[in-house]
Specification:
- By secondary structure, the protein is α+β, with helices and mostly antiparallel strands.
- It has one domain (5-91): Orthogonal Bundle (Arc Repressor Mutant, subunit A).
- Helices cover 47% and strands 14% of the residues.
- A three-stranded antiparallel beta sheet has the order 1-3-2.
- β2 (72-78) and β3 form a beta hairpin.
- α1 runs antiparallel to α4 (56-68).
- The longest helix has 17 residues, at 5-21.
- The chain is elongated.
Length: 106
Amino acid sequence: MCCDSNSCDKGRRFQKYFRALHCPTRWQIIRIIGGDEKGSGEILEELRKIGERLARSSLYYHLSELQEAGIIEMARYREERGGAPEKVWKLKTREIKINLLENMEK
């Protein structure tokens, strides 16, 4: 066995972050949301303004990957014009820190 369960848990958490953040589009989504709340439609519109050619279904995929990693979360639903409610997103974490020497002093 290469690691204890605590170290493996930290490794899995790091892998989730890495998988979620390897894509430049997801970094753009994080920047668009920033310190505010943004609806899915607003995020898609901003991405298109900066030249991203993204289908709505692709946006939902990127949002779900960021949510799964614990980077963003749904803040609420917004109802507009009698249509289906729109998800409104916010950052769940603003900073990710990894201490490479943690537990090394033992």
